[in-house]
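Milestone 3.1: sequence recovery, worked example.
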């Protein structure tokens, strides 16, 4: 595509996102300083229409972008619109006050919805991809223990262990150290292989106690709790009633399904992904676009977050917002709450 044609497409997208009115050649000539006449712009618009990148609704002289037009626009974005200093500070300040993982997830989804004025979705960190940060054994009574498993994603799992006999603090301290040495830094699916041999270093008398502790650790690491998604900002859809004049109900229905939301974010990685209109796998969401990115460690995202809105969305601004928020969430997780 010629650079001139791309600039005209960009102008049409920018105008239509801002006004929701079909865009004419005179409007582009007057407002975008391309240095070409309305007649030349009309000729280029005719080519863009032949290529399926723009279309004209009804008998209007103006043009609007198609899903393919938005796709070309997004793929050709030279730079993602930077957030203002005030927006960056607001994100940092809002997330810095988080107390734990649940708090940071809830703050994140509210913040994204507020910044982008779209529907925000945030996936909790996946336990399967998480690594063990620390395991703690606390004696509540000499025969009753609390086990706490903390992952690098900030998730905390707890179990109470009832024993038939009392255990000493010295015994508990040694077992705690062994477990941490064997597990720390390993992924949860690897835990069983790492700790099953620990029992062999204990006497027959102590082995039954260690077996209970080890089996509890393995249970905790093998469990696959249903992945959890939270969302906020569904009321923002009301701002785009014209965009969803006949599809609001199906969109809302789709957003109520956790499976649909998990599928939406399922392939997100460290690169911002944009899925536009007809590219959405769920038929009920084909009047929407998704901007999503993974968060967590650089090479292996632990979860994902994004925004859903009309195809007529501010893609550059949405991409900047989800990228910035994902960086802050990743920092929270990696620094350890």
């Amino acid at each position: 595509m010629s650079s001139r044609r791309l600039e005209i497409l960009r102008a049409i997208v920018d105008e239509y996102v801002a006004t929701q009115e079909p865009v004419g050649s005179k409007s582009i000539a007057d407002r975008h300083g391309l240095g070409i006449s309305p007649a030349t712009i009309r000729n280029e618009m005719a080519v863009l229409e032949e290529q399926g990148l723009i279309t004209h609704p009804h008998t209007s002289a103006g043009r609007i972008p198609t899903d393919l037009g938005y796709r070309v626009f997004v793929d050709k974005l030279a730079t993602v619109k930077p957030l203002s200093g005030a927006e960056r500070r607001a994100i940092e300040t809002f997330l810095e006050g988080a107390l734990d993982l649940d708090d940071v997830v809830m703050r994140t989804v509210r913040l994204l919805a507020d910044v982008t004025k779209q529907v925000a979705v945030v996936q909790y960190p996946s336990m399967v991809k998480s690594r063990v940060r620390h395991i703690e054994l606390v004696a509540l009574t000499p025969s009753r223990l609390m086990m706490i498993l903390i992952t690098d994603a900030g998730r905390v799992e707890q179990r109470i262990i009832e024993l038939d006999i009392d255990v000493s603090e010295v015994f508990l301290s040694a077992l705690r150290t062994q477990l941490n040495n064997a597990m720390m830094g390993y992924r949860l699916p690897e835990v069983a292989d790492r700790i099953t041999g620990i029992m062999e270093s204990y006497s027959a008398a102590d082995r039954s106690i260690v077996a209970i502790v080890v089996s509890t650790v393995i249970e905790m690491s093998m469990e696959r709790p249903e992945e959890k998604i939270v969302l906020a900002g569904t009321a923002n859809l009301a701002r785009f009633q014209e965009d969803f004049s006949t599809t609001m109900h199906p969109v809302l229905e789709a957003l109520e399904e956790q499976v649909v939301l998990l599928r939406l974010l399922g392939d997100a990685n460290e690169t911002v992904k944009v899925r536009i209109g007809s590219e959405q796998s769920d038929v009920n969401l084909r009047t929407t676009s998704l901007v999503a990115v993974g968060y967590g460690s650089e090479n292996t995202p632990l979860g994902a977050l994004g925004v859903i809105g009309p195809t007529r969305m501010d893609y550059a601004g949405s991409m900047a917002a989800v990228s910035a928020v994902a960086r802050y969430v990743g920092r929270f997780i990696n620094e350890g709450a």
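The chain has twelve helices and ten strands. The chain has three domains: 3-75, 85-126+227-335, 132-222.
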